[in-house]
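Action item from last meeting closed. Structure (139 res):
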């Protein structure tokens, strides 16, 4: 009975302190990820390269079982820039690129799907014709 109580106490202590130790790297990763993104953008790099560098760093530093999605990483960078606005005042102008217009992206995806569907139908229609049916003077 005494061993059971000791194990229960150990599990309780681990349950309390493990979330505290797991969240610290996330905060540091997002802070440095924001620093990477903002410094690269301020240095004249384009959005894509700056975003990839910051996102890769955040994914690598976050660790754990679950990976960080691009939306989560963008939110972490945005939160850090807003929270530390004195430090990242030059970076606020770049935040709009982290959260693109979702409606426009959806419309572009739909157009791409329609285009692929039409291409597939065209290929299927072209397969129905042989060389003999296309030749003009074959009697």
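Sequence:
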């Amino acid at each position: 009975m005494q061993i059971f109580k000791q194990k229960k106490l150990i599990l309780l202590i681990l349950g309390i302190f493990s979330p505290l130790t797991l969240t610290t790297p996330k905060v540091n990763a997002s802070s440095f990820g924001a620093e990477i993104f903002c410094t690269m953008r301020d240095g004249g790099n384009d959005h894509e390269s700056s975003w990839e560098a910051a996102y890769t760093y955040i994914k690598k530093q976050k660790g754990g079982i679950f990976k960080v999605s691009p939306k989560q990483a963008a939110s972490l960078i945005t939160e850090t820039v807003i929270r530390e606005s004195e430090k990242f005042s030059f970076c606020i102008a770049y935040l709009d690129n982290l959260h693109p217009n979702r409606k426009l992206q959806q419309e572009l995806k739909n157009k791409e799907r329609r285009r692929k569907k039409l291409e597939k139908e065209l290929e299927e229609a072209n397969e129905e014709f042989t060389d003999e049916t296309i030749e003009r003077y074959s009697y």
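Note appended to the action item: Residues 36 and 113 are 35 Å apart (CA to CA).
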